[in-house]
Amino acid sequence: MSAIPPSTWYVDFFTELPNEFWRRAVPPEVTVEEIDFVEQRLGLAPRSLILDVPCGSGRHSVELARRGHRVTGVDLSAEAIGHARRAAAGLDVEFVRADMREIPWGKGFDAVLCLGNSFGYLELEGLREFAAALGGAVRPGGGLVVDFGSAAESVLPGYRAEPRAMRTGDITVLATSEYDVAGSRVFSRYRFTRGEEQLDVTAIHHVYTVAQIVDLLSGHGFTDVELFGGPGGEPYGIGSGRLLLVARRKS
């Protein structure tokens, strides 16, 4: 196995080149479909107070604000927060640079969103802290949506570590992965190239079972859990490419 990256890999990973690649890679209609799912499944009222964490470059926060919601986006990447603020000019949205666990407790958000597979960035103890923060941020009866691509039921069936090459505009990416059995985690190694610029970085995605996730969230007040395999509302099952979990904070 190659060198193991630090557990805090996400502190330095999300600089301009990786962020710009993913900004280009996601078509606008995907964001619209995902926010349609959030609004419909949570039954959001007009002008709902919503927390988007981590918000990345703000694509979900901006779409929510365009629809009239009041949004707070939290992310650790200074570059991503800067881009989000520029994209949201004139909209009712606030962007805060902070760790995903350092979110505003007691503010009574109507909904909290954790989208884009970031739920698996943290080791188990850190994830417990994040779940506690989520429970403290959303009001009783408020909603939660978690988008997670590293559930064990998604990752492990037929797992194969094959290199992938991706391109968007003048940015190319070579991605490889290794599954660490002892740590139940995937090391995703990326080489980003743009002209003469080249960046080698590694992400860690911790793999948790659906039962672990549900138990963790229920321990911090979330009930009525529903599991979906995509924003179209299809049921989640073995081999689904992603998990969309919807829950309510108990009253």
Automatic annotation (TrEMBL):
<feature type="domain" description="Methyltransferase">
    <location>
        <begin position="50"/>
        <end position="142"/>
    </location>
</feature>
<dbReference type="GO" id="GO:0032259">
    <property type="term" value="P:methylation"/>
</dbReference>
<protein>
    <submittedName>
        <fullName>Methyltransferase family protein</fullName>
    </submittedName>
</protein>
<keyword id="KW-0949">S-adenosyl-L-methionine</keyword>
<keyword id="KW-0808">Transferase</keyword>
<dbReference type="InterPro" id="IPR041698">
    <property type="entry name" value="Methyltransf_25"/>
</dbReference>
<dbReference type="Pfam" id="PF13649">
    <property type="entry name" value="Methyltransf_25"/>
</dbReference>
<keyword id="KW-0489">Methyltransferase</keyword>
<dbReference type="InterPro" id="IPR029063">
    <property type="entry name" value="SAM-dependent_MTases_sf"/>
</dbReference>
<dbReference type="GO" id="GO:0008168">
    <property type="term" value="F:methyltransferase activity"/>
</dbReference>
